[in-house]
Amino acid sequence: MRIIVAGAGIVGVSCAIWLQRAGHDVTIVDRAGPASGTSHGNAGVLAAGAVVPVTTPGLLGRAPGMLLSRDAPLFLKWSYLPKLVPFLLRYLGHATDAHVDRYSRAMSQLLHDTVDQHRALARGTSAEKYIGAEDYCFGYATKATFEADAYSWQKRKAAGCAFDVVDGLTYSKEDPAFGTVFETVVRCRNHGRISDPGKYVQALADHFVDQGGKLQIAEITDIEMERAAITALKTTDGDMHADHIVFAMGPWSKAIAHKLGVTVPFESERGYHIELINASPMPKNPMMVASGKFVLTPMDGRLRAAGVIEFGGLEKGPSRGPFELLRRQIEHLLPDLRYDDIVEWMGHRPAPADSLPLIGANDPDGRSYSAFGHQHVGLTGGPKTGRIIADLIDGKKPNIDLAPFDPKKYVDH
To answer: Coiled-coil stretches, from where to where (predicted)?
Structure first.
């Protein structure tokens, strides 16, 4: 079959490769090329245990104080607030224990075997060298702050996530970069790391093209519909037709999804990173710094600090506050760190109100499919999402309950 994949991030490229391996004629169309957005700028962690959403009980009470603190990892472009309010009400409405359990059950199915899924996707390609199997660690300044986070660890344990709790001194004997700045460290097993997310996705895309796939650089301007089903993709290079179209455009998916009748409550969640070039000393494992809710990840030739949440839409430029927060945190954690240069980046994460990605057919005939909305775990869940989409298009039943991810749950019947 002729299949178009809209979007060249990790999710879109994964869809394209698995569809290609199934024997289909696949074209990727993207306005800027592979890994030009969040697939380049993420924290690089294969977070198999990312089964607790941001919307946990008590968020509504904590959020105002976080927004007013320069040292909290939550930011808002205040001029964007009027547009944000309808989404925010839906988003905060999911800050319940029942929803955390629903999210956890669904996402543990999608994420638990992420390292194996990445290895299967990259097997036989030049992308293999970027995959590592390091533990994902969480550092807490005091034992009390770890104990205050007990809710999240109980949920991860219930979902089957394996982790060890060690004191900071014991951890520092293996990974001395942080010294004794953390009193408690949690080591999450069966996780992994991508040492250069941008180059990794580019290598996968190069493999796709080498195997006969087509990569078209064009902006998608609209879609053509007939009787609630898509008939064409309108681009700056003209109309494109296919038997099936997969939408994996990340935060740029909302407008098209709504035209397809998938009226998902959806926002762009802006993420930030800074990179310290040729940093020394270099940590061995990715470390989630619990106090700042950002991740320090050792990458090829640099140390990346990525995280922070800001709501401000797709159009406005970056804010200085998140960059300055990351700088302050690093100076506190690693006062003796030396580096040659510093690079700043801001990108967009796709955030549905319930934090669950949309994976599946948008219409009864399967003319179009959604594969977006992974929020913080696009890199982690991308390869498996691609395999699921390929199976669905081939008429196979994936070994996963897709009901929580079904795009049609947003369609008015």
So the answer is: none
Residue with tokens 């991740």: 295
pLDDT of 413: 47
Between 303 and 413, the higher pLDDT residue: 303
Is the predicted pLDDT of residue 50 greater than 80, yes or no?
A: yes
Tell me the average pLDDT of the chain.
Answer: 94
pLDDT at 6 over 90: yes
pLDDT at 229: 83
Query: Is pLDDT above 50 for 247?
Result: yes
Confidence of residue 37 (pLDDT cuts 50, 70, 90): confident
Q: How is domain 2-410 classified at the architecture level of CATH?
A: 3-Layer(bba) Sandwich (3.50)
